[in-house]
Amino acid sequence: MDHTLLKPESTPADVDALAAEAADLGVFSICVSPSMLPVDVPEGVAVATVCGFPSGKHHSSVKAAEAALSIAQGADEVDMVIDIAAAIEGRFKEVEADIAAVRASVPDGKILKVIIESAALSDEAIVGACEAAVRAKADFVKTSTGFHPAGGASVEAVALMRKTVGDALGVKASGGIRTADAALAMIEAGATRLGLSGTRAVLDGLDGVVVEDAGDGGY
Fold first, then answer.
1. Of 79, 83, 98, 139, which residue is the catalytic one?
2. Is 113 a catalytic residue?
3. What confidence tens digit (pLDDT) does each residue in 89-116 have?
4. Structural domains in the chain, sorted by start
5. Which of 28, 57, 90 is nearest to 214 (CA)?
């Protein structure tokens, strides 16, 4: 689970509290806005950030520079937003080039996740965007920013994303996952990472439930 705080009004004190809570919750990482980096985290907790967020309507060179700065400031993972319109219109070579530009700024050993904003896409566009992410050598595809009016993650989108990428990439479900039942449904559909802002409530709901571990940390 990525314990997430991306509200525009978040303060350094809020981020410090998020980091302190991470060890208690046993999450994989915290995910914060790039302007909040660097951040101290407990040992064993990774730091994730976002790039081109939330619209994706940034020049690829700007996304690449943002990703590079985030890595230099201690981020272990970068969650980038694609140009959603390019995916909607089927311009998947442009989507691939956008991802590849950021990939070049995220070195080996660091994780690149690609947010496709699945609720805004047709099934065909979801498949095309995921295939572009595979070709550009991303590590994950991710459903949503959580900020788009079309909505967040859905079981159907996660299942289609998993079917498309197979075992080549991880699948992160994020956006609107607020209950244990919703989290388990995403995992059953093929999600290997969850992005949650209400992490404690979800974990409380999972108390006593045995969930098979993906086992590799990265995926």
1. 79
2. no
3. 999 999 999 999 999 999 999 999 999 9
4. 2-205 (3.20.20.70)
5. 28
